[in-house]
Specification:
Elements: H1 2-6, H2 10-28, E1 33-34, H3 36-43, H4 47-55, E2 67-68, H5 69-79, E3 86-91, H6 95-102, H7 105-108, E4 111-118, E5 127-128, E6 131-135, H8 139-145, E7 150-153, H9 157-169, E8 174-177, E9 190-193, H10 196-209
Length: 214
């Protein structure tokens, strides 16, 4: 399975959450089946692209019938690993860290926030959605006692590099990086960097040039 997944392009992987979101909306609307053509209109992706994307994982459709919405939704959830629970730790209890902690939909997707840490001693002992904020100095002991799947870094870049290195040494294999810097972690560690300012720059470019970016 791993060998097959390595051949799947990043572009396909980035589209999977969109499929999942749209299929979830279709389920809420009571739609039981949908063709690739109908889904293409909704997602603004060609029907051939949809078929190619899903064929990477087995197809799931039936000629003349299309896709069973609930089944496809559940299959994509499995592909994305959303049929499992993932423990998440947030480093940084500022505005962004609090916003992430307060977003209840993460838990509905199986991302369970197990701990929140911050360097500010004034925040120690406070709670966010019932989760106690701990001092950052406690993170290594916490990591040794708890299985952490994902660490969200919402701290300044000067701290993020050091914290990521320390946690990677303790076995953390995935970082959701909001710090505006590259992390120095082993190649087998997953890093998903989110640069909010870069997103605004891309919007600025599109405004200036009157076009969208695929």
């Amino acid at each position: 399975m791993a060998e097959k997944e390595n051949k799947i392009s990043n572009a396909v992987i980035k589209r999977l959450p969109r499929y999942y979101r749209h299929l979830g909306e279709l389920i809420e609307m009571g739609v039981e089946r949908i063709s690739s053509n109908e889904l293409s209109v909704r997602m603004k992706v060609t029907a051939s692209q949809i078929r190619q994307d899903l064929n990477n994982f087995g197809g799931f459709g039936q000629q003349g019938y299309g896709y069973n919405v609930k089944i496809l939704y559940m299959e994509i959830a499995k592909i994305l690993g959303l049929d499992k629970k993932h423990s998440v730790v947030i480093i940084g209890a500022g505005n962004l860290g609090r916003a992430i902690a307060n977003y209840a939909n993460f838990e509905k997707r199986g991302f369970i926030i197990e701990g929140i840490f911050d360097i500010n001693p004034k925040l120690k002992g406070s709670t966010i959605r019932g989760i106690e904020v701990r001092n950052l100095e406690e993170i290594e002991d916490f990591a040794k006692e708890h299985a952490i799947d994902i660490v969200a870094l919402t701290i300044p870049k000067t701290q993020a590099v050091d914290v990521a290195e320390r946690l990677a040494r303790l076995g953390v294999k995935a970082f959701w990086n909001f710090a505006h810097t590259d992390l120095n972690v082993p190649e087998d560690v997953i890093v998903e960097s989110v640069h909010l300012s870069e997103s605004l720059m891309r919007i600025s470019y599109m405004l200036e040039n009157g076009s969208s970016m695929d």
